[in-house]
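chain below, 298 aa
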Amino acid sequence: MIDKKYKNLSVRSQCRLLDLNRSTLYALLKPLAEDTELANRIGEIYEATPQYSYRRIHAQLVREGKTINRKKVYRLMKELGLQAIYPKPKTTLRGKQAIVHPYLLSGFKIERPHQVWQVDITYLRLPGGFVYLTCLIDVYSRAVVGWRLSNSLCKEATLEALEDALWRYGSPDIINSDQGVQFTSEEWQKLCRDKGIESSMSHKGGSTDNAYAERFWRTLKFEGFYLDFPETMAELKRMLFTFIKWYNEERLHSSLKYKTPLEVLKMAETQTYGYVDNLLRKFPTSPQVQQPQFNIVF
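prediction:
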Protein backbone atom coordinates (compact mmCIF):
# COMPACT_ATOMS: atom_id res chain seq x y z
CA MET A 1 0.00 0.00 0.00
CA ILE A 2 1.03 3.66 -0.02
CA ASP A 3 4.02 4.56 2.17
CA LYS A 4 4.23 8.34 2.62
CA LYS A 5 7.69 8.02 4.22
CA TYR A 6 9.20 6.04 1.34
CA LYS A 7 11.92 8.26 -0.14
CA ASN A 8 12.58 6.55 -3.47
CA LEU A 9 9.04 7.07 -4.81
CA SER A 10 6.77 10.03 -4.25
CA VAL A 11 3.16 9.55 -3.17
CA ARG A 12 2.08 10.62 -6.66
CA SER A 13 4.28 7.96 -8.28
CA GLN A 14 3.05 5.29 -5.88
CA CYS A 15 -0.54 6.18 -6.66
CA ARG A 16 0.17 6.05 -10.40
CA LEU A 17 1.76 2.62 -10.13
CA LEU A 18 -1.18 1.30 -8.09
CA ASP A 19 -3.71 3.02 -10.38
CA LEU A 20 -5.09 4.84 -7.34
CA ASN A 21 -6.55 8.33 -7.41
CA ARG A 22 -4.82 10.63 -4.94
CA SER A 23 -8.09 12.16 -3.80
CA THR A 24 -9.31 8.65 -2.90
CA LEU A 25 -6.16 8.08 -0.93
CA TYR A 26 -6.58 11.24 1.10
CA ALA A 27 -10.23 10.47 1.76
CA LEU A 28 -9.23 7.12 3.27
CA LEU A 29 -6.51 8.47 5.51
CA LYS A 30 -7.53 8.84 9.15
CA PRO A 31 -6.95 12.28 10.65
CA LEU A 32 -3.84 12.57 12.76
CA ALA A 33 -4.04 13.47 16.45
CA GLU A 34 -2.48 16.85 15.70
CA ASP A 35 -5.15 17.46 13.06
CA THR A 36 -7.84 16.76 15.64
CA GLU A 37 -6.26 19.24 18.03
CA LEU A 38 -6.00 21.85 15.28
CA ALA A 39 -9.56 21.20 14.17
CA ASN A 40 -10.81 21.75 17.71
CA ARG A 41 -8.89 25.03 17.96
CA ILE A 42 -10.18 26.14 14.54
CA GLY A 43 -13.72 25.41 15.73
CA GLU A 44 -13.16 27.53 18.85
CA ILE A 45 -11.82 30.46 16.82
CA TYR A 46 -14.69 30.18 14.35
CA GLU A 47 -17.29 30.08 17.14
CA ALA A 48 -15.85 33.30 18.61
CA THR A 49 -15.43 35.00 15.22
CA PRO A 50 -17.65 33.33 12.59
CA GLN A 51 -16.88 36.14 10.15
CA TYR A 52 -13.27 34.91 9.86
CA SER A 53 -12.31 33.13 6.66
CA TYR A 54 -9.59 30.47 6.58
CA ARG A 55 -6.98 33.19 5.92
CA ARG A 56 -7.77 35.06 9.13
CA ILE A 57 -8.05 31.86 11.14
CA HIS A 58 -4.65 30.85 9.75
CA ALA A 59 -3.25 34.23 10.84
CA GLN A 60 -4.69 33.73 14.34
CA LEU A 61 -3.12 30.26 14.60
CA VAL A 62 0.25 31.69 13.53
CA ARG A 63 -0.07 34.40 16.20
CA GLU A 64 -0.57 31.60 18.72
CA GLY A 65 2.73 30.05 17.67
CA LYS A 66 1.39 27.17 15.57
CA THR A 67 3.26 26.14 12.43
CA ILE A 68 0.62 25.47 9.80
CA ASN A 69 -0.02 26.53 6.22
CA ARG A 70 -3.16 28.04 4.78
CA LYS A 71 -4.04 25.01 2.70
CA LYS A 72 -4.26 22.82 5.79
CA VAL A 73 -6.50 25.33 7.56
CA TYR A 74 -8.69 25.46 4.47
CA ARG A 75 -8.87 21.65 4.32
CA LEU A 76 -9.76 21.28 8.00
CA MET A 77 -12.41 23.99 7.80
CA LYS A 78 -13.90 22.29 4.76
CA GLU A 79 -14.00 18.96 6.60
CA LEU A 80 -15.68 20.70 9.56
CA GLY A 81 -18.18 22.40 7.26
CA LEU A 82 -17.11 25.86 8.46
CA GLN A 83 -17.34 28.89 6.21
CA ALA A 84 -17.01 32.56 7.00
CA ILE A 85 -20.36 34.30 7.40
CA TYR A 86 -20.96 36.52 4.40
CA PRO A 87 -23.83 36.92 1.93
CA LYS A 88 -24.60 33.50 0.40
CA PRO A 89 -27.92 31.91 -0.57
CA LYS A 90 -30.34 34.62 0.55
CA THR A 91 -33.15 33.53 2.84
CA THR A 92 -34.62 37.05 3.04
CA LEU A 93 -36.03 38.10 -0.32
CA ARG A 94 -38.74 40.76 -0.38
CA GLY A 95 -41.54 40.46 -2.92
CA LYS A 96 -42.24 43.26 -5.37
CA GLN A 97 -45.59 44.04 -3.76
CA ALA A 98 -44.66 43.09 -0.21
CA ILE A 99 -46.53 44.64 2.71
CA VAL A 100 -43.95 45.46 5.37
CA HIS A 101 -45.13 45.80 8.96
CA PRO A 102 -43.35 48.00 11.53
CA TYR A 103 -41.04 46.57 14.17
CA LEU A 104 -43.07 46.40 17.38
CA LEU A 105 -40.52 45.14 19.90
CA SER A 106 -38.44 48.26 20.60
CA GLY A 107 -38.70 48.76 24.37
CA PHE A 108 -41.34 46.03 24.54
CA LYS A 109 -41.31 44.06 27.83
CA ILE A 110 -41.96 40.35 27.42
CA GLU A 111 -43.45 38.95 30.63
CA ARG A 112 -45.12 35.65 29.75
CA PRO A 113 -45.02 32.70 27.36
CA HIS A 114 -46.59 33.13 23.91
CA GLN A 115 -46.55 36.89 24.15
CA VAL A 116 -43.99 37.08 21.33
CA TRP A 117 -42.75 34.44 18.91
CA GLN A 118 -39.87 34.94 16.51
CA VAL A 119 -39.66 33.09 13.21
CA ASP A 120 -36.66 32.74 10.94
CA ILE A 121 -35.18 30.60 8.17
CA THR A 122 -31.63 29.32 7.97
CA TYR A 123 -29.85 27.13 5.46
CA LEU A 124 -27.92 23.94 6.23
CA ARG A 125 -25.42 22.54 3.79
CA LEU A 126 -25.50 18.86 2.88
CA PRO A 127 -23.11 17.20 0.40
CA GLY A 128 -25.88 17.32 -2.20
CA GLY A 129 -26.70 21.00 -1.71
CA PHE A 130 -28.57 23.39 0.57
CA VAL A 131 -31.70 22.70 2.58
CA TYR A 132 -33.72 25.26 4.53
CA LEU A 133 -35.01 25.11 8.09
CA THR A 134 -37.86 27.26 9.43
CA CYS A 135 -38.22 27.59 13.22
CA LEU A 136 -40.59 29.49 15.48
CA ILE A 137 -39.21 30.42 18.91
CA ASP A 138 -41.20 31.52 21.96
CA VAL A 139 -39.11 34.45 23.22
CA TYR A 140 -40.08 34.16 26.90
CA SER A 141 -39.19 30.47 27.26
CA ARG A 142 -36.78 30.08 24.30
CA ALA A 143 -38.79 26.98 23.31
CA VAL A 144 -38.96 25.86 19.70
CA VAL A 145 -42.73 25.76 19.15
CA GLY A 146 -42.74 24.74 15.48
CA TRP A 147 -40.34 23.83 12.67
CA ARG A 148 -40.17 22.57 9.12
CA LEU A 149 -37.39 21.41 6.80
CA SER A 150 -37.53 21.99 3.05
CA ASN A 151 -35.24 21.76 0.04
CA SER A 152 -36.41 25.18 -1.16
CA LEU A 153 -37.44 28.56 0.23
CA CYS A 154 -41.12 27.74 -0.19
CA LYS A 155 -43.83 29.50 1.77
CA GLU A 156 -45.59 26.16 2.36
CA ALA A 157 -42.87 25.14 4.83
CA THR A 158 -43.28 28.32 6.88
CA LEU A 159 -47.07 28.02 6.84
CA GLU A 160 -47.01 24.42 8.04
CA ALA A 161 -44.52 25.28 10.80
CA LEU A 162 -46.86 28.04 11.98
CA GLU A 163 -49.97 25.85 11.74
CA ASP A 164 -48.31 23.18 13.89
CA ALA A 165 -47.25 25.75 16.48
CA LEU A 166 -50.75 27.27 16.61
CA TRP A 167 -52.40 23.88 17.08
CA ARG A 168 -50.07 22.90 19.91
CA TYR A 169 -49.78 26.18 21.78
CA GLY A 170 -52.52 28.53 20.58
CA SER A 171 -51.95 31.99 19.14
CA PRO A 172 -49.22 34.36 20.36
CA ASP A 173 -49.86 38.07 20.60
CA ILE A 174 -47.06 38.99 18.17
CA ILE A 175 -44.90 37.16 15.65
CA ASN A 176 -41.70 38.90 14.61
CA SER A 177 -40.10 37.97 11.30
CA ASP A 178 -37.79 39.43 8.70
CA GLN A 179 -39.11 40.97 5.48
CA GLY A 180 -38.79 37.82 3.38
CA VAL A 181 -41.42 36.88 0.81
CA GLN A 182 -42.51 33.94 2.95
CA PHE A 183 -43.69 36.32 5.69
CA THR A 184 -45.00 39.13 3.51
CA SER A 185 -47.07 36.68 1.45
CA GLU A 186 -50.85 37.03 1.56
CA GLU A 187 -51.19 33.46 2.87
CA TRP A 188 -48.96 34.12 5.88
CA GLN A 189 -50.54 37.49 6.60
CA LYS A 190 -54.07 36.07 6.31
CA LEU A 191 -53.29 33.23 8.71
CA CYS A 192 -51.94 35.73 11.24
CA ARG A 193 -54.98 38.01 10.83
CA ASP A 194 -57.41 35.11 11.20
CA LYS A 195 -55.71 34.07 14.44
CA GLY A 196 -55.58 37.61 15.84
CA ILE A 197 -51.78 37.80 15.69
CA GLU A 198 -49.98 41.10 15.20
CA SER A 199 -47.18 41.04 12.66
CA SER A 200 -43.86 42.66 13.53
CA MET A 201 -40.98 42.83 11.08
CA SER A 202 -37.31 43.43 11.67
CA HIS A 203 -35.68 46.50 10.17
CA LYS A 204 -33.83 45.92 6.93
CA GLY A 205 -30.34 44.87 8.02
CA GLY A 206 -31.47 44.70 11.67
CA SER A 207 -29.47 41.63 12.70
CA THR A 208 -30.38 41.97 16.40
CA ASP A 209 -34.13 42.38 15.89
CA ASN A 210 -34.59 38.59 15.72
CA ALA A 211 -31.85 37.86 18.26
CA TYR A 212 -33.44 34.83 19.93
CA ALA A 213 -33.96 33.01 16.66
CA GLU A 214 -30.39 33.86 15.60
CA ARG A 215 -29.10 32.55 18.94
CA PHE A 216 -30.95 29.28 18.40
CA TRP A 217 -29.30 28.88 14.98
CA ARG A 218 -25.90 29.25 16.66
CA THR A 219 -26.81 26.65 19.29
CA LEU A 220 -28.19 24.25 16.70
CA LYS A 221 -25.15 24.46 14.45
CA PHE A 222 -22.44 24.28 17.11
CA GLU A 223 -24.10 21.87 19.53
CA GLY A 224 -25.80 19.67 16.94
CA PHE A 225 -25.17 20.04 13.23
CA TYR A 226 -21.37 20.51 13.24
CA LEU A 227 -20.93 17.63 15.71
CA ASP A 228 -23.15 15.20 13.84
CA PHE A 229 -22.39 16.11 10.19
CA PRO A 230 -25.48 14.51 8.62
CA GLU A 231 -24.92 13.69 4.96
CA THR A 232 -28.45 12.90 3.78
CA MET A 233 -31.87 14.43 4.24
CA ALA A 234 -32.97 11.39 6.28
CA GLU A 235 -30.01 11.75 8.64
CA LEU A 236 -30.64 15.48 8.99
CA LYS A 237 -34.33 14.94 9.80
CA ARG A 238 -33.44 12.46 12.54
CA MET A 239 -30.78 14.77 13.93
CA LEU A 240 -33.13 17.78 14.00
CA PHE A 241 -35.95 15.90 15.69
CA THR A 242 -33.59 14.52 18.35
CA PHE A 243 -31.81 17.85 18.85
CA ILE A 244 -34.94 19.99 19.15
CA LYS A 245 -36.50 17.50 21.55
CA TRP A 246 -33.33 17.64 23.69
CA TYR A 247 -33.15 21.43 23.39
CA ASN A 248 -36.74 21.89 24.58
CA GLU A 249 -36.81 19.22 27.28
CA GLU A 250 -33.28 18.88 28.64
CA ARG A 251 -30.94 21.74 27.73
CA LEU A 252 -30.47 24.10 30.66
CA HIS A 253 -30.46 27.83 29.85
CA SER A 254 -28.56 30.25 32.05
CA SER A 255 -30.95 33.03 30.98
CA LEU A 256 -33.83 30.88 32.31
CA LYS A 257 -32.10 30.35 35.68
CA TYR A 258 -30.93 26.95 34.47
CA LYS A 259 -34.36 25.63 33.61
CA THR A 260 -35.39 24.03 30.35
CA PRO A 261 -37.75 25.77 27.90
CA LEU A 262 -40.57 23.32 28.58
CA GLU A 263 -40.17 23.79 32.32
CA VAL A 264 -40.67 27.51 31.79
CA LEU A 265 -43.77 26.77 29.73
CA LYS A 266 -45.00 24.53 32.59
CA MET A 267 -45.75 21.77 30.12
CA ALA A 268 -43.16 19.08 30.88
CA GLU A 269 -45.26 17.33 33.57
CA THR A 270 -48.62 17.44 31.79
CA GLN A 271 -47.92 16.48 28.18
CA THR A 272 -45.55 14.59 25.97
CA TYR A 273 -43.34 16.42 23.52
CA GLY A 274 -45.06 17.68 20.39
CA TYR A 275 -48.69 16.98 21.39
CA VAL A 276 -51.31 18.91 23.38
CA ASP A 277 -54.59 17.31 24.46
CA ASN A 278 -56.73 20.43 24.48
CA LEU A 279 -60.42 19.67 24.11
CA LEU A 280 -61.37 23.34 24.25
CA ARG A 281 -59.74 24.08 20.91
CA LYS A 282 -61.43 23.27 17.61
CA PHE A 283 -60.03 20.52 15.44
CA PRO A 284 -57.59 21.70 12.76
CA THR A 285 -58.81 22.08 9.21
CA SER A 286 -55.53 20.91 7.68
CA PRO A 287 -54.61 17.21 8.03
CA GLN A 288 -50.87 17.73 8.40
CA VAL A 289 -51.24 19.60 11.71
CA GLN A 290 -52.94 16.62 13.38
CA GLN A 291 -49.79 14.53 13.38
CA PRO A 292 -48.35 13.76 16.85
CA GLN A 293 -44.90 14.74 15.69
CA PHE A 294 -43.43 17.18 13.22
CA ASN A 295 -43.72 16.30 9.53
CA ILE A 296 -41.01 17.31 7.10
CA VAL A 297 -41.64 19.23 3.89
CA PHE A 298 -39.66 18.06 0.85
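Residues 211-228 form the longest helix (18 residues). Residues 22-31, 268-296 have pLDDT under 50 and may be disordered.
thats it, cya
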